[in-house]
Fold each of these.
Amino acid sequence: MFAFVSGNLALDFAGTVKARATTFDDHLCTPADLADWFVAADLLDGEPPCDAAILDRAVRLREAVYRLALAAARDDPFTDADRGIVNELAVGELPWLALQSDATLIRTGTPDAAIAAVARAAVEMLGGPDRQLIKECGRPECTRLYIDTSRGKSRRWCDMTLCGNRAKSAAFRARQAAD
């Protein structure tokens, strides 16, 4: 259900909306969806008790992160309102980590701690060198943003299996139809 291909936790969180320009396929519609994302993102081991207010804060963060990252990708200035949302939600405790005797890791905390972890990932990305590496997926139907860590900084798609193959298949079919 969730894809973690963006190279940054905050961008993966922003990517919980697919096809923003067309269908706006939102994968965080309920508090339970948000709890599932926290577990899938390895922020928390057990599903935390999320409610409508927590979901609202998370969605505000997600949309602010998306707008800020898109501005970075396009070399546009950040808005004060979006910066304020991210900075406000980055304050607070983070999930707690504990190493067990069998060398396994336990992640516990509140939903707000998980939200703070996402917001801090956004602050570090947008305020650091990764800001220059943010790109938009080259497949027109996709609106995912990602960190381009490829050798030549020439990556075109958010993920080869998600969008790269689709784009290449479509181009192949178009060439075949033209012949």
Amino acid sequence: MGTVVMYSSVSVDGFVADENDQPGPLFEWLTSGDVPLDAGGGLTVSQTSYDYTRPYWDRIGVTVVGRHVFDLTDGWDGKPPGGIDHVVVVTHRPAPEGWDRDAPFHFVDGVEAAVARAQELAGERTVEVAAGDVGGQVLAAGLVDEVRMDVVPVVFGSGKRFFGSVDAQHLLEGPDEVVQGSRVLHLRYRVRR
């Protein structure tokens, strides 16, 4: 099985979005460099951020998100973001009416079942879990192997927390990597078992 990684860009004070579900400047580092990060050239980062981010992104086989993120993005119009093969959506509701059943999206009830399905689909590739409420639930269930965060120099004061509503202590190792990019600090921690 591949590694299960909880990931997102995050404010210095630990938020992945503001109170209105807006990321604000959290993704500016993805458009402030001169090295294309994606095939379309829409994302440009510093060389340092490219060297850190691109190999990680290339290993991702499946992303796990909550229904809220799925709805906010309109399901990425049925095309998984960033060239990822599949998206597993944690939800108690069925796919939206009229949803293309051939799109590589899988609607699963519960985080344990979602991670199990994602690992089946990913094989040896990485399972990425979006930070926030679902990511926090996956961490609390003991299913996260690694935490990655791109810390952006902004303070939100309030909003959607990186670890969601986790209410227990979880110890991390390291950090195993600390990489300073342009307007971002990339961090990687293994979860202590």
Amino acid sequence: MEVMDGNGRRLANARLPEGAAGMARLHALVGEAAGDDDEVEVLIGIETDRGPWVRALVAAGYAVFAVNPLQAARFRDRLGVSGAKSDAGDAHVLADMVRTHAHELRPVAGDSPQAEAVKVVTRTHKTLIWERTRHTQRLRHALRDYFPAALAAFGDLDATDALTLLAKAPTPRAAARLTLAQISAALKKARRRNVQDKASAIQAELRAEHLGQPEIVTAAYASSVQALIAVLTVLNEQIKTLQGQVEAHFGAHPAAEIILSQPGLGQVLGARVLAEFGDDPDRYASAKARRNYAGTSPITRASGKKKTALARFIHNDRLIDALLTQAYAALTCSPGARAYYDRQRARSSGHNAALRQLANRLVGILHGCLKTGTLYDETTAWSHHAENVAA
């Protein structure tokens, strides 16, 4: 870390230890630099917006700014073009940034502990879902190489019935020996419908002729597949458990009712939106500021007479994923959202562009509801656009 005065003069620098000892050392260095001036304002730049250090700095009364690492990298290029990088250099960049550009940086949000708890469980829940997808793809690739009949037999490889049957019979020869009773039992346990028809279809696919591998290679693949199945089984269990925690924490938050009133948002998706936006009432000065943070609003590049509007590619991936999912779901439950989307498509916008514009509109509606403390109303939300169309 580096301590710098208002004129850019370095007052102190040090490598701080972790934990309470590091925080005590920081307070001591700041106290030495401030001297007897009790009114001095201390600005701190840090490349994260969460964690015990951030919370301790805010609690101590410092003005803390969460600096995006990309911002810091661009600022570093202003101070030197050599490309050199070090911890001491990074500390100097952060100190100089908050000294000269604090008015353009985003202060760390003052989210409530309830919102922080929602963020912790929702991010872990989503991460486990992403991990399940990765392991399912690995399972799919392995089966394609030695057991293509399994891909034809099972539509959802991460489903309980598919994992149960593959664990019982991980080789083509063992799968061909599965009886209708065994297949039906797995389908019933997974609460599938039309069990008899599906069991017959699965058995037929497993007994059909397919290209294979030598016996020793098949055995090696089977061992790998069983390991992947074990991981997927645990992931399924933990995802289900964490979903209950997500719903419990989100349901206890004061803003849950307003968020759930929005079209396309349920317990899990609403929790993700709350977690990534936070609940600091002063964080977003306007609907535009919230849209910019969400990454749904376009960016404009203008030079001379040329002006273009482009999608934002630097954004919170978790938030934009949740908002686009909401927009897609809103198409079937909100007539206003559907009409807005159709108008964008009529203007030659592609599906993704129209969906992003709808998400941008829904973020503005959510902002208004949260600011005024009112529930979503279909007529009020889309009245302005309806009037424009009528005109």
Amino acid sequence: MFESILAAAALLMIAIYSGYLIGKGKSKNRSDTKQMGLSKKYFVGLNYLLNEDADKAIDTFVSMLEIDSETVETHLALGNLFRRRGEVDRAIRIHQNLIARPSLSTAHRKMSLLELGYDYMAAGLLDRAENIFNELVADQAHKQASLKQLLLIYQQTKDWQNAIKVSERLQPGASSSVKVEISHFYCELAEVKLSQQSHREAMAFVKKAISADPYCARASLIGGNVEYSLGRFKPAIKAYRELIRQDIELLPEALNQIVSCFKQLNDFKGLTIFLQNAIEQGAGITCILVLAEQIESEQGDIAAGHFIAEQMAQHPSIKGLLKLIDIYLRHASDSARPSLQMLQDVVGKLLQNKPVYHCNRCGFDSKSLFWQCPGCKTWGSVKPIQGIEGE
């Protein structure tokens, strides 16, 4: 509703300005017949506007306006408004009409090109938008805006090499978040190479990712996966261990591989020490439950239950409670078993439809880990949910 009011207001301003030009005498050198024709268009346009026929109104009023230094801003503002309303075809028509005028100044032409590039982006015509922004990158006034749009294009098309090049050009005048983005672009390349079994190239990109951002936990995770796939379990553990320093919240993403590495090395004591250290550093319930499994295999389920209960006294967790109920059911009397089973079902249902991951930037929730948030498009902002319903 608000956008419709804005559009009507913009059209009304064009109508008023057109009437002003008429009254000012811009048509003094024209014949009386042409002046009468212009006046007729003015009132026809007003009629369309009053009858809420925006398509015909805009065609009428724009045809009345001479494109000069006084009216270019009006055309640009109107095109921008139509794009914001989702009427991209109209916006493209207005901006293309501006660019086609040979009398347009160089500065206004570049402004119109920039707006047309935004139009093409909104319409999904990325190849056309890319051509425009590549042209405008050479202009200092539009360089930053064009680079940002090119970065969006290369991310959408998964052209990670060009995304890195553009990011490096943005970096001198950008925030530290650009380094985070660059590291994720290298990680994307590393994952492609890992899927192709090109392990050496994958590790080369991992190193570049860590060089761009030493706290890139995703790079260490991929590096560990490369080593694991090659059967090099000690280097894999070394890579996974970096997650504790870089971002301990992401440690659960590697726990299955970590357990497997220690088991392949027949180093169960080393696994226990690794898990204990991680818990001391702040690892969540997933790590606690894995260590509980180790305790259970060595000392029995009662000892595992006591360990979980001790940990839950400091960090309450529904997942931990569910595991405790499972242990208590094994030792419950016939009279207590039905109540515990009912409690197990209730707690299980509480977890069943809960999201697992949460974007710390926009609040997007999901059951899958996204390295780039689908909601706000931020890299590295989606993490496992913490607290009683999460880690």
